[in-house]
């Protein structure tokens, strides 16, 4: 059985973020399981997957929320989902160059993604890392569930350097 879960996309009229979207996914999973049960399917394990932002959300659910889920997550897979948010990895967006302009750009991008106000000063002193931790693959441990991912060395959305952090983790 497969199920797709929609989440609120950020627009000019709302402030949806990867963090708020991850909580929508977490809230929706029990409903998916319940609807499957009503349709005669007993879900006793699951894989979570996605592409791009959906891949990020799948990883967040698998690594952050899956261990506490009623239905165990046994693997995650996807492609192109941002996995880590270290400014030095995001140079394709002009971030991480240690200039006022790049710190402003990093603060703006990571504010939108994290749903928390991040200032250029926090970029400079690296305290922003605590704020983006909730949307990063920081939970990957030696005993984490299996993960299959695909990233491109020349990807213009997910910086390849950030995917190397996921590989290392």
UniProtKB/TrEMBL annotation:
Residues 3-168 form the BD-FAE-like domain. This is BD-FAE-like domain-containing protein. It comes from Sharpea azabuensis.
């Amino acid at each position: 059985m497969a199920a797709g879960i929609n989440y609120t996309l950020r627009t000019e009229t709302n402030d949806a973020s990867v963090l708020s979207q991850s909580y929508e996914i977490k809230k929706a999973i029990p409903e998916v399981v319940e609807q499957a049960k009503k349709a005669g399917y007993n879900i006793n394990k699951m894989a979570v997957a996605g592409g791009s932002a959906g891949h990020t959300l799948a990883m967040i659910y698998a690594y952050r929320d899956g261990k506490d889920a009623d239905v165990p997550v046994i693997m995650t897979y996807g492609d192109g989902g941002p996995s880590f948010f270290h400014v030095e990895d995001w140079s394709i967006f002009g971030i991480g160059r240690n200039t006022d302009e790049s710190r402003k750009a990093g603060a703006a991008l990571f504010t939108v993604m994290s749903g928390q106000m991040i200032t250029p000063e926090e970029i400079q002193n690296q305290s922003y890392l605590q704020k983006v931790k909730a949307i990063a693959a920081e939970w990957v441990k030696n005993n984490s569930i299996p993960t299959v991912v695909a990233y491109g060395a020349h990807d213009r959305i997910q910086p390849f350097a950030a995917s190397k952090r996921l590989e290392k983790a």
